[in-house]
Amino acid sequence: GAVVSQHPSRVICKSGTSVKIECRSLDFQATTMFWYRQFPKQSLMLMATSNEGSKATYEQGVEKDKFLINHASLTLSTLTVTSAHPEDSSFYICSARDGTGGREKLFFGSGTQLSVL
Amino acid sequence: QQQVKQSPQSLIVQKGGISIINCAYENTAFDYFPWYQQFPGKGPALLIAIRPDVSEKKEGRFTISFNKSAKQFSLHIMDSQPGDSATYFCAASSDQAGTALIFGKGTTLSVSS
């Protein structure tokens, strides 16, 4: 089946630093990628939707300048958490949609656990 | 505003029993209802999905029942096994939303052996 690779799987950083998370579709072209945030034992909250070559659409309450999303190619989207603070510690998950298929063709990465000290 | 309500929050089932998880939605524009399974530290994986033109879909031990008039859908896991112990999320989306999934709060299932 289709694979979405998310890297790194775990990152620990100091407060004030920036962290970049990569999401790659390995065997299909992802016209749309989604970024979710998940707190322990909570649901996945949609942060933003990104389409290749255009600006990301952020959900209400998500700071655009803090969570920078770049979808420069059909196989790569990145989420950069800028000036990270302890409250940004969370599990971040990307998903990618295979543009050739229907909504079943939506695949999730394995997630990135971010811990900000 | 929670668009997809999921219950129960947690569930304990004996091996071989039936696990039932329920979801209700509010947005009548939703037309795609998947269930995802998530293990700790991993991303969710699609288990089974249904569209509102059918009332039931079965794949192996997993069945989705869909009630369009009540705006409810449920997941039934037959012959539950310890390996089914995970968190299950229902979700919904509509074409108008650009296929972004809206998730329920999740149900933690524990199957005792």
Structural commentary:
The complex is a heterodimer of chains A (about 120) and B (about 110). With about 120 residues, chain A is mainly beta. Chain A has no helices and eleven strands. In chain A, the strands form two sheets. In chain A, strands 2, 4, 5, 6, 9, 10 and 11 form a seven-stranded mixed sheet that branches. A four-stranded antiparallel sheet of chain A has the order 1-3-8-7, with no helix packed on it. In chain A, a hairpin with a 7-residue loop joins strand 9 (about 90-100) and strand 10. Chain A starts with a strand and ends with a strand. Chain B is an all-beta fold and about 110 residues long. Chain B is about 0% helix and about 50% strand. Chain B contains no helices and eleven strands. Chain B has strands spanning about 5, 10-15, 20-25, 35-40, 45-50, 55-60, 60-65, 70-75, 85-90, 100-105, 105-110. In chain B, the strands form two sheets. In chain B, strands 2, 4, 5, 9, 10 and 11 form a six-stranded mixed sheet that branches. Chain B has a five-stranded antiparallel sheet with strand order 1-3-8-7-6, with no helix packed on it. In chain B, a hairpin with a 6-residue loop joins strand 4 and strand 5. The relative contact order of chain B is 0.34. The mean pLDDT of chain B is about 90. The chains are: A mainly beta (about 120), B mainly beta (about 110). The interface between A and B is medium-sized, with 23 and 23 residues.
Rg of chain B, Cα atoms, Å: 13 Å
Could you say which overall geometry of chain B the principal axes of the C-alpha atoms support?
globular
Give the chain pair forming the largest contact, with residue counts.
A-B, 23 and 23 residues
- How far apart the termini of chain A lie comes to 37 Å
Number of helices of chain A: 0
The structure class of chain A reads: mainly beta
Strand residue percentage of chain A: over 45%
- Could you name the ranges of chain B where pLDDT drops below 50 across 5 or more consecutive residues? none
Structural class of chain B: mainly beta
Return the string of H and E elements of chain A. Answer: EEEEEEEEEEE
Mean pLDDT over the full residue set of chain A: 90
Overall, the morphology of chain A is globular
Number of separate strands of chain B: 11
Give the oligomeric state of the chains in this entry, treating copies of one chain as homo and distinct chains as hetero: heterodimer
Major sheet size, sense and barrel closure of chain B: 6 strands, mixed
Largest β sheet strand count, sense and barrel closure of chain A: 7 strands, mixed
Report mean pLDDT of chain B, rounded to a whole number: 92
Cα gyration radius of chain A (Å): 13 Å
- Helix proportion of chain B: under 10%
The residue ranges of chain A in which pLDDT falls below 50 over 5 or more consecutive positions are: none
Count of helical stretches of chain B: 0
